[in-house]
Fold:
Amino acid sequence: MAAEPTVPPPRPPEEVAFEKLEAAERSGWLEEGEVKLFHVAVSEAVREYLGGRYGFDSLEQTTEELLVYVPAANNDADASTLEAADILHESSDADYT
Structure:
């Protein structure tokens, strides 16, 4: 009888998030004036972390829906930050340099 292959456990969400944030920092996007690309990468890393941490599909949620799942984000400062992130993420014609 062959042994079943073992599947490694998923990486901790904070480990994945830090890796993605560091990749965004090293990307050179800010130095190149590609603020939107940088922002989208950071926003997605944070959303993926929140989804992994709290166990929901965070990339498919609106900010309003996200705030329902994340207890620590239920304050005005965090909500404003996430809403600003949505505006930047969704606007493709704005110049952020």
Remarks:
- The chain has four helices and no strands.
